[in-house]
Specification:
The structure is a homodimer.
Chain A: H1 11-31, H2 34-39, H3 48-68, H4 84-102, E1 113-116, E2 120-123, H5 124-148
Antiparallel strand pairs in A: 1-2
GO molecular function (chains A, B): metal ion binding
Pfam family, one (chains A, B): DinB
Protein name (chains A, B): DNA damage-inducible protein DinB
Chain lengths: ~160, ~160
């Protein structure tokens, strides 16, 4: 275990920050028309359904892997979802699982290294920040899709 | 001064995280053709030049305000920039200013409240996470613009 240097955010606040982002992403999913969620894209990019599939394959499974120190390969879209409502249901399940697994993280864990998906060997705090950044990044793309569809996205600061 | 609870990231690592994102955003600016940087947009959104103007008006000025506890209103585009190279120059100036001002932050500062731009009264750590998230969000939009222009954006994990 490493000595803890002076640090700047508590686990509780970081979880709140993450779940705030996840709540916003959920609202963006909700705003997509069913058809466009699965079909609309720009410039050859993935549909928003595909982007959300990626996010679902990261957040909760990744945190579970971290908590259990169980290295598993990244596995996306293992279950075939065909309605937006199923994505929202998975999203809500992930929200609960994240809250539960977060409780199992100790303060020391954050600075320990974990080989996420057997590919990303970084301190756990960096892995978690990556989950959040990656979600914000893809959600930003979803905002453009919504705008292109003539739909006003939620305010970015709504959490 | 509040008691510091156990926390999960050091100021040094948070700065590195932020500047890593800023380096990636700089590469996205570089990839835009001059004309498209100022003119291209989707669905009535702002051009990438306008989005970068916003980011420039936040990052360094906001951190300076925090460090000096000087509440100033948000001021965007005070200087008229007409070439992409000028944006890159401002970006690099901001990089240096951020590094310098970061040194002046104490560990206690992060949990103190600051009324950013006279509008956002939050703990400083939350303000800083907001700067990063907001940049990732707008850069994600820039990725869609690049794709729509047939230009491949950098890998998201490149920092």
């Amino acid at each position: 275990m490493k000595t803890l240097a002076a640090q700047v955010i508590t686990p509780e606040d970081l979880l709140k920050h993450w779940q705030g982002h996840r709540a916003l992403t959920r609202r963006v999913i909700e705003l997509f028309p069913e058809k466009d969620f699965f079909e609309f894209s720009i410039g050859g990019m993935r549909t928003f359904a595909k982007l959300i599939e990626e996010l679902l394959a990261i957040a909760s499974p990744a945190l579970k892997g971290i908590v259990n120190r169980e290295v598993k390969p990244f596995a996306e879209g293992e279950e075939k979802l065909i309605f937006k409502a199923q994505y929202l249901e998975k999203w809500d399940e992930a929200t609960e699982e994240i809250n539960q697994n977060w409780e199992k993280l100790t303060i020391e864990d954050f600075n320990e290294t974990f080989n996420l998906f057997g590919q990303y060997e970084f301190p756990i705090i960096q892995n978690i920040l990556y989950f959040i950044d990656n979600e914000v990044h893809h959600r930003g793309q979803g905002y453009v899709y919504l705008r292109a569809l003539g739909i006003e996205p939620p305010f970015f600061w709504e959490r």
